[in-house]
């Protein structure tokens, strides 16, 4: 979390941003329906777009977490105060403590919002934070795997607040786009992934882009250690697929 004068430090939560989670690293094809969403998020993260609350949702691996972390990276580059909170790591903690004072930050990003289902204390705490953020003129970016209407939220007031947000659904990449994204990511890592190897990985590894990129990272590390090119036999050996 970046902090500014007069903003109290939050608890050290052990939450860190992935170095590769940037807007530049988010794959977009020329006709990608996500282009407008990403452009709006870039303006939002830098403070150029004054929208108070944005709700971003999509299936696992669609890039929601990547874009929330990208927004934080962009906020930091712009000198804005921020906090990234993945609920998957925080649900066992006291929400009143975790969310206390966050409305003093310029940007708060809360990920994995679908995990609020069945957690009434977290729902109440988020409802109050939502109101405090809006009242203070700050910004809130929310990420989930379900739309606001699709969430099984017990607190009706929170559900209505979430539905008032500016809502966007991320569209999943096609297989052709995933293939292109794999090869582009490999070039960013400093090596060229042959198309036949990329096809092999795409059709045998988990299908979501985050899992595919993790496979690529694993292959890159193994290739450097073994001083070997990444071929299909090497992929079979390292990934066991």
Overview of the molecule:
By secondary structure, the protein is of the alpha/beta class. The chain has 2 domains: 35-169, 3-Layer(aba) Sandwich (Rossmann fold), CATH 3.40.50.300; 175-239, Helicase, Ruva Protein, domain 3. The chain has 10 helices and 5 strands; from the N terminus they run H-E-H-E-H-H-E-H-E-H-E-H-H-H-H. It has helices spanning 35-46, 64-77, 87-90, 95-98, 120-136, 156-164, 175-188, 195-204, 209-226, 232-239; strands at residues 53-57, 82-86, 107-111, 139-144, 166-169. A 5-stranded parallel sheet has the order 2-3-4-1-5, sandwiched between helices. Strand 3, helix 5 and strand 4 (139-144) form a beta-alpha-beta unit. Helix 1 packs parallel to helix 2 (64-77), helix 7 (175-188) packs parallel to helix 9 and helix 9 (209-226) crosses helix 10. The termini are far apart. 34% of the residues are buried.
Per CATH, what is the topology of the largest domain? Answer: Rossmann fold
Q: Treating each run of at least 4 consecutive H or I residues as one helix, how many helices?
A: 10
Kindly estimate the percentage of residues that lie in beta strands according to DSSP: 5-15%
The CATH H-level superfamily of the largest domain is: P-loop containing nucleotide triphosphate hydrolases
**Helix proportion of residues, in percent?**
40-55%
């Amino acid at each position: 979390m970046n902090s500014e004068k007069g903003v109290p430090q939050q608890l050290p939560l052990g939450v860190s941003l992935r170095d590769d989670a940037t807007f530049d690293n988010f794959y977009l094809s020329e006709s990608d329906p996500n282009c407008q969403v990403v452009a709006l998020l870039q303006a939002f993260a830098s403070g150029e777009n004054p929208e108070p609350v944005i709700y971003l949702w999509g299936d696992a691996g669609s890039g929601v977490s990547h874009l929330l972390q990208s927004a934080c990276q962009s906020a930091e580059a712009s000198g804005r105060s921020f906090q990234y909170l993945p609920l998957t790591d925080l649900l066992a903690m006291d929400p009143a403590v975790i969310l206390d004072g966050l409305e003093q930050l310029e940007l708060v990003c809360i990920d994995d919002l679908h995990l609020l289902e069945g957690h009434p204390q977290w729902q109440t705490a988020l409802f109050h934070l939502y109101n405090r953020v809006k009242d203070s003129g700050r910004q809130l970016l929310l990420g989930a795997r379900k739309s606001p209407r699709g969430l099984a939220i017990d607190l009706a007031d929170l559900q209505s607040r979430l539905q008032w947000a500016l809502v966007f659904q991320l569209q999943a990449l096609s297989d052709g786009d995933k293939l292109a994204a794999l090869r582009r990511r490999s070039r960013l890592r400093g090596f060229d992934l042959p198309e036949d190897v990329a096809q092999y990985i795409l059709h045998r590894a988990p299908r979501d882009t985050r899992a595919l990129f993790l496979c690529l990272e694993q292959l890159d590390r193994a290739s450097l250690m073994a001083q070997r090119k990444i071929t299909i036999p090497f992929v079979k050996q390292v990934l066991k697929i």
